[in-house]
Amino acid sequence: VSWVPGTDPPPTPLPSSSSRCPTGGDSALSQEALETLAEEAGFSGSEGRSLAFTRAASVLKALPGQLSALEEGQALGSGLSLSLGQDVLEDGVSVEVERVKLSERYRTMKLFTKIFGVGVRTASRWYQEGIRTLVDLQERNTKLTRQQQAGLQHYEDLNTPVERGEAESIGRMVQEAVQRFLPGASVTLAGGFRRGKPRGHDVDLLLTHPEAGREAGLLSAVCLSPHQGLILYQHSQENSFALHEGPEPPGGRDVLDRFERCFSIFRLEVQGRPGAARGWKAVRVDLVVAPVGQFPFALLGWTGSRHFERELRRFAGHERKMVLNSHTLYDTRLNLFLPAASEEEIFQHLGLEYVPPTQRNA
Ligand code: DGT
Ligand code: MG
């Protein structure tokens, strides 16, 4: 079975009695416009609407070439019209997107949620308290977690894209540290870089060892001991996954996994950085340790994209009655875990053709 993320289930065509398309008949609906609307819906706590816009943006990305507004509307489906609402349908999407982009709330929420450690809830609370700028945050002595303090301190660097070369340097640094502590352990670059993206917002690294159990405690070697000067911030979380607890229920908490993990900020030496007074840059690095038996699931889960993962898990649940997460694949009809030694085997269990990382950018 060949499967394209974002098209499951197939989009519902607009009722044929309606000649109106969800773009409101103005200029063509762009992926960027839909992403802005998704973001704005997320800021307002409307997860359902946010997801509808994200899905529509993804469908639009997969559509070939230039389509007429009507064809586009049909492909995007009636769910989108519902999410847009009557006002927007009448005034046009581009008017709405401009309104959103200019609104004080959207701009402030965007500024705050770009601080490492700040989510929608915190940003929204600050907005309600009348805080509008990063200077306001400091001047009012707003209570910040250690993570948010680091995020604010390195705000500019952390919002400057990480280049592939920088991600690879960090991968090598971690590899060296890991090898010293546990020879034979491996470090794999996951996330957007594994999907072939030239730059990203952070570096996602997966650590494992070919002998199960040897990987335990590996993070402390990298995060805590020898590289103190290279790590500007770190927050570790222990492994809390236990296979005997059984699978998470379908549709349950499948976003966060329970691996031993270190959220950190590395200090990366950079030479000849244009305009920079100092020779280093702060970079967000996520280190995740997976036991070898769970490694293919962790690799699949941490390669993303987020949208691809969401759709793949939904497909597994709805079409195959299986629970997929970053630890395991569980068949609820057979009541058993399906082991896999590679990502390819996971796709086989799901009855899907293998989708290579570069095609998971949906
Ligand atoms: P980027 O970093 O913005 O260039 O883009 P990505 O695709 O690397 O996104 P990122 O780093 O947020 O996440 C990489 C993948 O890892 C993404 O598909 C979702 C997954 N991921 C991120 N955080 C978590 C987490 O806490 N738990 C699980 N299971 N997966 C996560
Ligand atoms: Mg990433």
Characterization of this structure:
It is a single chain. This protein has 362 residues and is an alpha+beta fold. The chain is 43% helix and 14% strand. The chain is built from 17 helices and ten strands. It has helices at 31-43, 47-62, 69-76, 78-84, 86-91, 93-102, 104-113, 120-128, 134-139, 146-153, 155-158, 164-181, 191-194, 218-224, 295-303, 306-320, 343-349, and strands at residues 162-163, 186-189, 199-200, 203-208, 231-237, 260-269, 280-289, 322-324, 329-331, 336-337. It has a five-stranded mixed sheet with strand order 2-4-7-6-5, sandwiched between helices. A hairpin with a 4-residue loop joins strand 9 and strand 10. Helix 1 packs antiparallel against helix 2, helix 1 (31-43) crosses helix 6 (93-102) and helix 7 packs across helix 8. It is globular and about 65 Å long. The two termini are 18 Å apart. It binds 2'-deoxyguanosine-5'-triphosphate and magnesium ion. Residues 191-192, 200-202, 204 line the site of magnesium ion (MG).
Give the tags:
binds magnesium ion, 5-stranded mixed sheet, 362 residues, alpha+beta, binds 2'-deoxyguanosine-5'-triphosphate, 3-stranded antiparallel sheet, 43% helix
Report the structural category: alpha+beta
Biggest beta sheet attributes? 5 strands, mixed
The global form is globular
How big is the Rg? 22 Å
Q: How many runs of DSSP E, i.e. beta strands? A: 10
Q: Average pLDDT, to the nearest integer? A: 84
Percent helix: 40-55%
Along the chain, the helix and strand elements come as HHHHHHHHHHHEHEHEEHEEEHHEEEH
